[in-house]
Amino acid sequence: MDSWIDISLPLNQQTAVWPGDTPFTYEVNWSKEESGSVNVGRITMSIHTGTHIDAPFHFDNDGKKVSELDVNVYIGKARIIHLPVPSSIGIEALTGVDLEGVSRLLIRTDVWPDRSVFPTAIPEIEPELASYLGDKGIRLLGLDLPSVDPIDSKELLSHHELTKHGIHILEGLVLDQIEPGDYELAALPLSLAEADGSPVRAVVKRL
Ligand SMILES: N[C@@H](CC(=O)c1ccccc1NC=O)C(=O)O
Ligand SMILES: [Zn+2]
Ligand SMILES: [Zn+2]
């Protein structure tokens, strides 16, 4: 029997974060000794750490917050494809990739092997890809990269274009061991009312 496979990045003090962003911390804020009954923990983190989804509010002040996003996008059938170490990902890279009936697409690139160090450069997701994928009916794009735009991008063009074409963004997946094919995916965000994104526990199961 196929079981669920974890494709999320473990969160701990060593988890690499966006340069200058809040490090991940977990602490027992109220110990069993202090409370007399329970350990009560507290986490501090940037939302854009590890495996997470972006809400449009991340790059658009008028964009949707996490709790306004449709949960159906983040759970269901997904196709995983492997584009080994591409310099960029555009329409050309996807020519010949069958996307018939696919609404969730996850791309394994293998460009970030040492996840304890934040990458200085990542392949560009070409903004033109957004309309191509949107026209094919894609509603979720997931990648094993920390962003769908170059690290030094200030315009976040691909984030904007993907959103414009109805495509939700899932970043920081761990797909190293995952063979291309069709899977069941669950990567649900927390119901964060005000937030610009959410960490997710992403799992897949072979169909
Ligand atoms: N767009 C990236 C995050 C990002 O751009 C970022 C995250 C934390 C601190 C600064 C960031 N961008 C700075 O230009 C993401 O979606 O995860
Ligand atoms: Zn993000
Ligand atoms: Zn992003």
Structure commentary:
Its EC number is 3.5.1.9. One of its GO terms (molecular function) is formamidase activity. Keywords: Hydrolase, Metal-binding, Tryptophan catabolism, Zinc. Pfam families: Cyclase. With 207 residues, the chain is of the alpha/beta class. It has one domain: Glucose Oxidase, domain 1. The protein has helices spanning 32-35, 91-94, 129-135, 157-164; strands spanning 5-6, 25-30, 40-44, 52-54, 75-82, 88-89, 104-108, 124-125, 140-143, 168-171, 181-186, 197-199, 203-206. Strands 1-13-11-5-7-9-10-4-12 form a nine-stranded mixed β-sheet, covered by helices on one side. The chain has a two-stranded antiparallel sheet with strand order 2-3. Strands 6-8 form a two-stranded parallel sheet. The N and C termini lie close together (11 Å). One zinc ion binds next to strand 4.
User: Please, what is the CATH homologous superfamily?
Assistant: Putative cyclase
Strand order of the largest sheet: 1-13-11-5-7-9-10-4-12
Strand content: 25-35%
CATH topology: Glucose Oxidase, domain 1
How much is the radius of gyration in Å? 17 Å
Helices and strands, in order, run as EEHEEEEHEEHEHEEEE
Overall pLDDT level: 97
Summary, kept brief:
This protein is an alpha/beta fold. The chain is built from four helices and 13 strands. A nine-stranded mixed β-sheet has the order 1-13-11-5-7-9-10-4-12, with helices on one face. It has a two-stranded antiparallel sheet with strand order 2-3.
